C-alpha cells in the first residue's frame, strides 16, 4: 500500500515538533511492514526512507495527491476534504472546539480524547525508542523536570515550580526560559529552578537521563502526552494531574496523578518508584511499531 502523509509543518523536527516526530516514526514503521510511504509537507523537508513532495500553496489537496496513492493520512482537518475522491484518514492531534465538525474518518490519539469528541476510534501515539538510545539506570538523578512549552498556560510550568518547591527538590524546565513575556509576565526567582530553553536532540535526552521524575500538573485535558512517555522511557515516574489521557499513560506503578498540589509534592518527596517499570511501560505500550499496527 502507498500511504501519503499530509502535514502543515516540515519534517524532520527534533525539538518540539511532536506531531512531526510521530508521523516520522509512523512512516518508518510502516516502511518496515512493507508499505510505501510519502510525505506531502512544506518545502525544505527531507527524509531518507520516503519520498517527499512539497505542498503547493493555493492548490486543492485533491490535485496534489499522486495517482498511485492508496490512502491519504491527514494530520489536520483539511478545508476542502469533500472534493477528495480518495480513501483518507484524519488524525486529530489536538483538542477541537466543542461541537466543531470533524471528518467521518477521524482517529484520535487516546480513549479519553476520542470520548470527548463523541467517538470510539483511537490509536495511541508511539515513538521509535531505538532512536532514544539506552537508558542508564545507575546514573545519579539529582533533579526533577518539566517538559513542554512553558509559555503555554495550560501546561502550567508555575504549578510544576510550586510542586517542586513544596517537595524541596530542584527542577529543570525543558521548554522555557526564566523570563517569559509571551503570554503575560512571568519571572522565576528561585535558584532551585533551572531553565534549559527549547532543547531537542541529544541535549534533551541527556537531561532526561539525569531526572528523577516528571512534574506535569497540566490544567487541560491532554489529548495524549508525548512528554509523559518520553519521561517514562528514561525511567522517570510521572507526578501529574489526572486530566485527559494521563490516566491511560501512567499506571499506579509509574507515578501519582492528583489535582492536589500537596499530594503531588508529597509523592515527589517520597519517590520510591521502579525506574525499570516506568521504562517498560513506555516500550511495551507506546512504541512506533504498536502505533503502526493500530
How would you characterize this protein structure?
This protein is α/β, with parallel strands linked by helices and 294 residues long. Helix content is 27%, strand content 19%. The protein contains nine helices and 14 strands. The protein has helices at residues 18-32, 111-116, 157-167, 201-209, 226-233, 246-249, 261-270, 275-285, 288-293; strands at residues 2-6, 36-41, 51-54, 71-74, 88-91, 106-107, 143-147, 170-174, 179-180, 186-187, 193-197, 211-216, 238-240, 255-257. A six-stranded parallel sheet has the order 3-2-1-4-5-6, with helices on one face. A six-stranded parallel sheet has the order 11-8-7-12-13-14, with helices on both faces. The longest helix has 15 residues, at 18-32. It is globular. The model has no long low-confidence stretch (mean pLDDT 92).
